[in-house]
Write a structure and sequence with these properties.
This protein is 22% helix and 27% strand. It is globular.
Length: 180
């Protein structure tokens, strides 16, 4: 990960950074994140596809990919997958810029050398923003750590069922299916 100089960044400046991979802004520092590996990318795409198909079919809102930035405050984060309910989206066309609000659901798919604890700072920030549900998908242990708005955590594996709870009502998938 490369860090660029600390400064106050505008949305326009951030959108003009040329980088193949994700860009996040944390405490005034631009973080250029490396692209995902094949396993991480495939898991993320498959879960995003399933979630998006469900959300679109039931007209619940919109699902966004890993290149989508949310900036409700100074920092900019780009979850691997995110969901925003239709009630919180503008009518008509989506804005071309970042979301200046928190997603309802943030999903992070861990890379090969990452652990759930590597995401503690990001999870705390998501919760402080008002993200209602967080899924930390760990291909290394084939588990999903569910973090709820109150900070409560639950680790699911194998035949356990991951649900959208009251955030994406009715969505469910067996955890083992995520890693197939």
């Amino acid at each position: 990960m490369t860090v660029v100089t600390k400064k106050v960044w505008t949305d326009e400046e951030l959108m003009q950074i040329k980088h193949e991979g994700k860009v996040e802004l944390v405490d005034g520092e631009v973080k250029l994140l490396t692209p995902a590996g094949l396993e991480q990318g495939a898991i993320s795409m498959d879960l995003a596809t399933r979630l998006n198909n469900y959300v679109r079919r039931h007209k619940l809102g919109r699902v966004f990919d890993a290149q989508t930035g949310f900036r409700p405050y100074e920092n900019l984060r780009a979850p691997d997958i995110s969901f925003v309910s239709k009630e919180r989206l503008p009518e008509g066309r989506l804005p071309k810029g970042f979301g200046h609000f928190a997603p309802d659901l943030a999903v992070e798919v861990l890379g090969p050398n990452e652990t759930v604890s590597d995401y503690d700072e990001k999870v705390a920030e998501y919760l402080s923003w008002g993200v209602r549900l967080i899924w930390l998908v760990d291909p290394n242990t084939e588990t999903v750590t569910v973090v709820r708005a109150n900070g409560e955590r639950e680790v699911l594996k194998g035949k356990d069922v991951l649900t959208g709870e009251d955030v994406v009502p009715g969505f469910k998938i067996k955890v083992k299916k995520i890693f197939e």
